[in-house]
Amino acid sequence: MSRFSEEVELEMSVRRLRENFHGKIPVDKATVLMRRYRNNHRMVAMEIILMKDRDLDEEDKWSLENDTVVRNVVQKLQTEEREQSERDARSSGASDDSKRSKQPKTSKQGTIKDRDIEELGKRLRVLPLTEKNMRMFDHAQKNLMPSVIHQFACETCDQVWWRRVPQRKRVSRCRRCKKKYDPVPPHKMWGIAEFFCLNCSRSFKGFGRMDIGSPCYICRSIILPTQILPPRRNMRDQGPRRRQQHSCLAEDCYNRQEPHVTGTECVHPRSRQKNNKPQVVNPSLPHISSGSTVNTCLSQGSLLEQVYELILDDIGEEESGEESDSSGSGHTVSS
């Protein structure tokens, strides 16, 4: 394996380990442990939880001082945390000193001595015996990272994307302006919607939004979507199906039904383009950081991208193009 690939794999492992332990493990110690156990999450979790009393051997000490892979990963992640801390301090108005005091500092003596790792284990072991902490240790030992899928939208850049993000850190960054956002609220999501008509027991998909109903093509009843579906590669490869031209009650729908509802707008891409309206219907709110979360490999991963490819892209300092939104033709759409 090349040194470049080793850095990518080690960085992924360190990010995942720190997320599993909710950011309680400093970057340098997480990197040392992951390198020692060759990215074996279970072994590292056991080392921390069981608090093994073992000094670093000569090979570990040599790695800390001379291993380019370890050094590069530690420097990158610590720089990332320091910059994030400074941004949080500016946005919240907190003093720089109080923020910097929370950041791990690079120290050869601190990392070489296994006593620091032992103290870390002690701190983790005396955490309150709560369901949340029990779940954290259980997930860490099993190398699990609970995640959820959310829609995000940047009004400034007029960009819409979906991300799989950690449950405890539901935040995503716009890849153009680099600002962080909270998810679009569930009742304001839009896109390819799933409908179920109680009158005729018919289910169908089409463009829609959660807060406005669309007519059923069979019984003409107005129904609300049950959910907005994230885009998938296989959505266009589901074989032949019946297609209905989109039509809704929105005032600006390109195929408007009557009587239309004044003041409503259609979310179908054709209607948005025809009326010179932006892609973003309901923008995400800017994220206000509490300083309690850490950057993770999962938080920047999209549904259509691989984590490995994203980190390679990040290391190469190249921005890839935005994902194109799924534009599959729907049976109906909400306004």
UniProtKB/TrEMBL annotation:
Compartments where located: Cytoplasm, P-body; Nucleus
GO cellular component, one term: nucleus
A Pfam family matched in the record: UPF0515
InterPro entries from the UniProt entry: SHFL (IPR026795)
BP GO terms, sorted: innate immune response; viral translational frameshifting
Region annotated Disordered, chain positions: 77-115, 314-335
Keywords, in A-Z order: Cytoplasm, Nucleus, RNA-binding
GO molecular function: ribosome binding; sequence-specific mRNA binding
Sequence ranges of Low complexity compositional bias: 326-335
Compositional bias annotation for Basic and acidic residues: 78-100
Compositional bias annotation for Acidic residues: 314-325
The family this protein is said to belong to: Belongs to the SHFL family.
Name recorded for this polypeptide: Repressor of yield of DENV protein
